[in-house]
């Protein structure tokens, strides 16, 4: 794949592990059972349960392999342990305002946890890269498909230290 570390929050790694366990311990064994049953029903070339089951099993095995590689490459970073809380780093939740006084709140997290609709953006995204190291009051220009846009950092927060 690549040799860049896969930074992830503890919650993100937990979610990957839960998905892996769900597939490996529950979904895959059920599917194998269905395939075995379907295989026992005679002609496999026209057996929909068998054909679909095998296809679905390949998809699950591919996802298990992907999840396994992502977890192996994971470097867990706990945002609550961030020492420099005055600047934007991995795990920061940042409140921004644009030229039109529209506020936006984003959290910089790992690629496997990103959900732009929820304001959870990959720390490798162009938007996050523009924000890294910023302090409250700093202006950052982000190149968007519609052109550059200026954002001011209004607030930076991290989860409370454990």
From TrEMBL:
Residue ranges of every copy of the Transcription elongation factor GreA/GreB C-terminal domain listed in the record: 85-158
Does the UniProt entry include the keyword Phosphoprotein?
A: no
InterPro entries linked to this entry: GreA/GreB_C_sf, Tscrpt_elong_fac_GreA/B, Tscrpt_elong_fac_GreA/B_C, Tscrpt_elong_fac_GreA/B_fam, Tscrpt_elong_fac_GreA/B_N, Tscrpt_elong_fac_GreA/B_N_sf, Tscrpt_elong_fac_GreB
MF terms from GO for this chain are: DNA binding; RNA polymerase binding; translation elongation factor activity
SUPFAM superfamilies per the record?
A: FKBP-like, GreA transcript cleavage protein, N-terminal domain
Can you give the residue ranges of the Transcription elongation factor GreA/GreB N-terminal domain?
6-76
Q: Which domain of life is it from?
A: Bacteria
The protein's UniProt keywords, in alphabetical order, are: DNA-binding, Elongation factor, Protein biosynthesis, Transcription, Transcription regulation
GO BP term, example: regulation of DNA-templated transcription elongation
Q: Name one Pfam family in it.
A: GreA_GreB_N
Q: Does the keyword section mention Membrane?
A: no
Q: Which family does it belong to?
A: Belongs to the GreA/GreB family. GreB subfamily.
Role this protein plays = Necessary for efficient RNA polymerase transcription elongation past template-encoded arresting sites. The arresting sites in DNA have the property of trapping a certain fraction of elongating RNA polymerases that pass through, resulting in locked ternary complexes. Cleavage of the nascent transcript by cleavage factors such as GreA or GreB allows the resumption of elongation from the new 3'terminus. GreB releases sequences of up to 9 nucleotides in length.
Q: What is this protein called?
A: Transcription elongation factor GreB
Recorded source organism is Edaphosphingomonas fennica
